[in-house]
Amino acid sequence: MSYPALIVGVIAAIAVFLIFAGFVKRRPQVDLIDARLAVYDEPTADRSLDEIEMSQPFSERFLRPFFDRVGRRVASLQPGDRARKLQALIDLAGRPMGMNAGSFVAAQLVLGVVFALAGLGLCLLVGLPWFLGLVFGAVFGYIGPQYQLKRIVKGRQKEIAIALPNALDLLCISVEAGLGFDAALARVTEKFDNALSREFAFVLNEIRLGRPRHEALEDLGKRSGVQDLASFIQALVQSDQLGVGIARVLRIQADEMRRRRRQKAEAKAQQASLKMLFPMVGCIFPILFVILLGPAAMQLIFHA
User: Fold this and answer.
1) In the chain, how many H helices and how many E strands?
2) What pLDDT sits at residue 180?
3) 182-to-8, 123, 207, 237 alpha-carbon distances in Å
4) Contact of 249 with 235, CB cutoff 8 Å
5) pLDDT value at position 230?
6) Which 3 state secondary structure label does DSSP give 211?
7) Engineered SS bond to 47: which of 21, 51, 98, 176, CB 3.0-4.6 Å?
8) Which of 93, 97, 102, 91 is nearest to 67 (CA)?
9) CA-to-CA distance for 112 and 142, rounded, in angstroms?
10) Which stretches in the chain have pLDDT values below 70?
11) What pLDDT score does 224 carry?
12) Are 129 and 119 in contact (CB under 8 A)?
């Protein structure tokens, strides 16, 4: 074992740990009332800018500004179509860690370099050709974030599709009880904690800042990528423009969403028998053949 290879491997491992520790670590949940009261308790007026900056976590002080600077440089070199498609994919994923297209590509480059060094050190330790670890590590570090981003998009869309019928039921009940649509949306955000409720909270913040309701809702339908949610928002916007009662539209949409959900469940149940066929043919039937026909085959072989 060579000491330079060991040093390279240790440095690469430490770099990977720092990057993931800085971004994956979640902030602790703080009660809203305690946070507002803390503003009056802490002597923030006497604190300098350096003290305020040093009180922030390492990811906000160093990692995020670094990735933003590198991201702006990289975004200026990318084709416009590729940057727009990547930004649309990041929006579908819910803008994880506040990333944009440039910072995401910068993270890919940094992870490519880090994993290339890790692969280089690993190949030197085990005695494999060094260029194999360098190439495979760089490819894995660059393509891995894209694969993870697509997984986040699929998981988020599935979470929204599952939470949509329950959210529509609560919206319908709240509006029929006398609440306005904005207040009903606020009730959904208080009751549930999922991707759909967070998107509704984002829409409410946009409406409170002065954006028209139909524009905020249409933007939600575009960035969610869920067809059922887009159809519901389209019906809601049309009813608002035509002056139709929103409670009736919500009741119809809730019933329709439940019907679609039941149809999807029935379709998946019908596919279960076909999906079970391949494991049975490949795994269960050969074992049964061995158990049932094995003794007869042994007798034919030894008595032939």
Assistant:
1) 14, 0
2) 83
3) 56, 58, 9, 14
4) yes
5) 86
6) coil
7) 51
8) 102
9) 5
10) 1-64, 67-68, 70-72, 74-80, 304
11) 82
12) no
| CA neighbor of 70 nearest in space, from 113, 96, 108 | 108
Contact 160, 229 (CB under 8 A): yes
Q: What is the 3-state secondary structure (H, E, C) of 180-247?
A: CHHHHHHHHHHHCCCHHHHHHHHHHHHHHCCCCHHHHHHHHHHHHCCHHHHHHHHHHHHHHHHCCCHH
Structure tokens at 193: 């904690």
Tally of CA atoms within 13 A in the half-sphere of 158 that contains its CB: 6
Alpha-carbon gap, residue 282 to 5, rounded angstroms: 45
Query: Using CA atoms, how far apart are residues 71 and 50, in angstroms rounded to an integer?
Result: 25
Give the pLDDT of residue 27: 43
In terms of Cβ atoms closer than 10 Å to its own Cβ (0-12, 13-18, 19+), residue 288 is exposed
Q: Is residue 228 within 8 Å of residue 162, measured between CB atoms?
A: no
Cα–Cα distance between 122 and 49 in angstroms, integer?
43
Residue 23: what pLDDT?
Answer: 46
Tokens 């904005």, residue located? 182
Answering whether pTM is above 0.90, one says: no
Q: How far apart are CA 47 and CA 72, in angstroms?
A: 31
Residue owning tokens 């919206």? 171
Question: What distance in Å separates the CA atoms of residue 117 and residue 259, rounded to the nearest whole number?
Answer: 53
Q: How far apart are CA 213 and CA 195, in angstroms?
A: 20
Given a contact cutoff of 8 angstroms between Cβ atoms, the answer to whether 224 and 92 are in contact is: yes
As to burial, measured by CB atoms within 10 angstroms (0-12 exposed, 13-18 middle, 19+ buried), residue 31 is: exposed
Domain architecture of the chain: domains with CATH: 3-153 (no CATH), 159-260 (1.20.81)
CA distance 83 to 93: 15
* Euclidean distance between CA atoms 169 and 105, whole angstroms: 40
